[in-house]
User: What shape does this take?
Amino acid sequence: MKINWFCPLPPEKTDIAHYTSRILAELHNNGEIVLWTDKKVWSQELENFATVRWYDPDNLPEGDLKNADVNIYNIGNNNDFHGAIYKVSRKYPGIVIIHDVNLHYLFTCLYPEYKKSGPDQDAYVELMQRCHGYTCKQDLNKFFSDVLTWSTMSERYPLTFAAVENALGVIVHTQKALETFSNDQRCSAPVLYSPLPYPATPIHPTSRDESRVGPPYQLIIFGYLGGTYRRVQSVLEALGGMSEKSLFRLDIYGRIWDEGYIRRLIQEFGLEDIVTLHGFVEEADLDAALTNADLAFNLRYPTGGEASGSQLRIWSHGVPNLVTRVGWYADLPEDTVAFVNQEREIRDIQKQLQNFLAEPAKFAAMGKRGQEVLAVDHNPALYARQVVEFALEVTQPGSSFVLPSPPAVSVIIPTYNCDRYLQQAIESVLQQSYTDYEIIVIDDGSTDSTQQVLQPFRSRIRYTAFQNNQGVSVARNQGLEMARGKLIAFLDADDWFLPNKLAAQVAYFQAHPFLGLVDSGFEVVDAQGVWLADIEPWHEYPELNLETWLLLKPLLSSAMMFRREWLEWAGGFDTNFHYGEDVNLIFRIALMNCQADWLRQVTVCHRQPNKQSSHVREKAKYLETALLNLFAHSDLSEELRRMKDQTFYQYFVWLAWALYQTGHPLEQAKYLRKALNFTHDSQEDVISDWVSRYREFSVNYGYDFDAYNLSNVPEWKDVVFSVLNV
Assistant: This one.
């Protein structure tokens, strides 16, 4: 088989270039290889196993590219190494090997004037909307106005699928990437997972200095140290804060993004006699340093989700090392690395260094176990064979590859630090009587044990995570972007579905094809899941129209099901809303004349807000904003405009009750005073109405209500006094 192999080549200073040299002999054993590079210099040793050809991406030799059996494109995140390769892949279909899951940096470098009006911005916007659909438009506007940072845009919109739009097949190196590409409608090609290859022994073997035993122990950091994501500054801070720091020596290899800053940190933490900066060194010198290292640091935060060639290199030397529990690293076997949790990074680094001092033999065994995993799972010969076999399969006429049928319903579960309840939420979907669904879990930067809770479900859910908390609107939009179903159900991580929820709502949609939204009733339960009340709003509000949405409180998105196209037409959830996003969305689609109806059935269990819930104050602000936005519309009917005072009055009294119920008496008083601006009733009638509504809300949602206790709250008494003395 003749393969055109597009990849950076040595001596380029990227591990992806060395990855090619590590597997080239094995590729040569399985086919005829032509290496293509847009650089004028390459290592002559490559020509022992392949022909090397230079190319200009704007003036390609069409005959040579079409005469091969397959073109294979290695795509990473650095434009200097991969920009030209991407351009070729757009013109000539082939297999794409993904080295970085987040490719936003690559594409913003390809369109460097993307922040200015013009061709680059047009191309960037078109690419974003092609990859991420309707949900990204609102954030693009904020990005161009400098409301959102580049790093935020990169995390929300990784542009991963732009690299595979023209692919015959996709090869990935991580299980997470396999899940991403295999189960998404934006990838229409077969996907092969094969772990990143690396030899089980050092490429440049040297002998360890056996005369060096015990402290000071040799620590090492190496690689491309651009930016802060390699956590060099954190290692220095942790080491500088230890009384045992004199027992270590730290060597740092690689170009540093700001050497002056690092040298200042070394001085600040008193590490001048402990830390040595070596800069960039040749591969053989780096291997010699690793041979004599006792412990390595391979920390990452944030990470683009890629497999780590640095990690494999460390294992090839049998050196123990510390990794951040994030991305690909989080799934490494517990006995092969020592983990550092990002939320307590400095403390964990210090603790692991102290553990090393206490039991260096245990850490040495960890390094040897990593070397064993490397030999079994990352074998270059196996990798090369799998790549060629995959190429043969996907290029055969009449390939048997068939895209899986999309499910009818996508259940989207956003979660943030909700590990106590998340398992019950997922199991409630798995136990549904209706089975044509997918579960999409969006971890919005959780710092609790969410990942461990999800582990038993990973084969039955689709899962993605933000490394930093983005807010529920962004998380829901991410779920919508991933969803394949024509019907969408949202489930808050602390709620759970009753067994017939999906079946009943799907049947209602089938019987009423003109509907865009079906809502239902729900049970209110306490923190332990004990029933408190059934909420069946259709008795009071038999029709679901905009007038009802204005009066209905609260809205519960877990009780609803949507036709996907209405969410697309509305542009998804407004990412300005961190709370009240569901109310804002309902108002917007109701203004678009989305037809809605009740499924007169209780389908969900909803936990009563905690008495100490702090987010109620924030939610109140966002709900007020949603109302203001709605009534600012110039095309509202006169009937709706006449409802403005009634709507604001009722919402403000309801918010006052919710704030009182969750322990915020000052904010309660503020919203009661706001409510006064929207009523013309007498003072006595207003106070009587407040008490009546408080009692009604409390009974409906399972709270005890005592008017006497309310009357003794100082903030309540102040408001009542001011009302009566107007």
In short: DSSP finds 29 helices and 22 strands in the chain. The chain has a mean pLDDT of 93.
